[in-house]
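Would you mind giving me a polypeptide sequence along with per-residue structure tokens?
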Amino acid sequence: MTEKRLHHLRFECNSARYVRRVVLDPVLIGAAIAAFLLAISAWVAHRETRAYEIYTPTAYVVEPLLPWNASPPREWTSAVSVETGCNHISDKHGVKESIIYNVTFDDGTVAHVGDGIPINGSWLDAAERIDGQVRASGATFHPWTWLWRDSYHPLCVAALSAQSSDAAFERLKALLRLPEPSP
């Protein structure tokens, strides 16, 4: 790369311009790339950073960190699709099971209900109330897909079964639309 640039500058007579083009042009290109990447990362950080999220029985409320970008609460009845699943992660930090219940609204916003923490009552009770609202909206339900992950990982399902009573596990199966095991 440097030889090619120097080859193009071999007839440059002005020494100041020669030094500027040899030394500063790569720096300016790097600075332009860095500025572009900084602009993209600032936009992503602004879009993804939230002060808090609240899941009520009727709406999903997001309060962004920057107040001028506030949006009205999204009613569960405006949901268009839901991804459900059960994710199993095993790494050097241990094993983690995650319930996936991601609600996508008509404006593209995604609420990760599986990560919600209820203020009172159980997560399952709250999720079933939300599920009733979402079903009323006519939203489509489909298995969660992400890279090579199993939508309903058998180890995750087994862990949920072990952690729950039989009645609660049946409710979870209905909520997540778990497929029946094949014989």
